[in-house]
Design brief:
Bound molecules: zinc ion
Helix content: 40-55%
Number of helices: 10
CATH topology: TIM Barrel
Shape: globular
Order of helices and strands: HEHEHEHEHEHEHEHEHH
Largest sheet: 8 strands, parallel
Strand order of the largest sheet: 1-2-3-4-5-6-7-8
Radius of gyration: 18 Å
CATH class: Alpha Beta
Amino acid sequence: MSNAQCVMRNELVPCPLSLVPFIDTHCHLEDENFSADRAEVIARAKSAGVERIINFGSTLRSSVAVAELAKNFSELYAGIGIHPEEIDDFDENTCTRLAELASDEKVVAIGEIGLDYHWEKDSERRLIQQKIFVEQLDLARQLHLPVCVHDRDAHGDTLRILQTEARDLHGVLHCYSGSLETAREVWKLGWLIGVDGPLTFKNSAKVPEVVKAAPRDMLLIETDAPYLAPVPYRGKRNEPAYVVEVAKKLAEVRCETLEEVAAYTTANAQRLYCSVRS
Ligand SMILES: [Zn+2]
């Protein structure tokens, strides 16, 4: 489709809301930033057409918190796991505790787990991150759950671990920040990528190139709230309602309608996290 056709097609959709509901597939509503107005934030998401929200833990404590929130709000689901920046929270009992939490049907994933070399420069501790990442991939396999992976400045090792340890698992590389070349390897494994606020940032040269090339069934939208608010909210507290801004940008970059983006990203989320039904 030419650019002119693309503009015309989007002009035919003046309504900012899609009739198909959105799913914010990654955020942190257990965060203290939402203590004062969590119910209002969820209500605002609903009014914006965001009907399902998946919160991810990063420690055992926050994993308990997201599972608890999912029990209290019908719109919420939970992913549980130990984030690579929180490896000191991981001991020989952690997987047993996580498995107990996962018996709740609203716990739909293991995550966020993975590697973070941006904050961790020590090579020994990076190896510990890798070991804990693999242990939690094993847990996901035992529990038959999909995986949400955090990869910051560790694209090579993350891809290697997915290729060697996770070929039989399903999952997503959330807040994808790697190259198109790496994304193609990720898609070959059948894994998805998650797109959020940075797609809307002016300096996000790599991300639009990746999402343009992505097959429709390989994309999820997310906010990572309270972090990474998309334009026009950049710098403010992020919240699930703003996932619509990510979807709008995705539609613009890929020459699609907002309706189409809502339809396939929601279908992808429901396919990956199969108990998240609208
Ligand atoms: Zn996150």
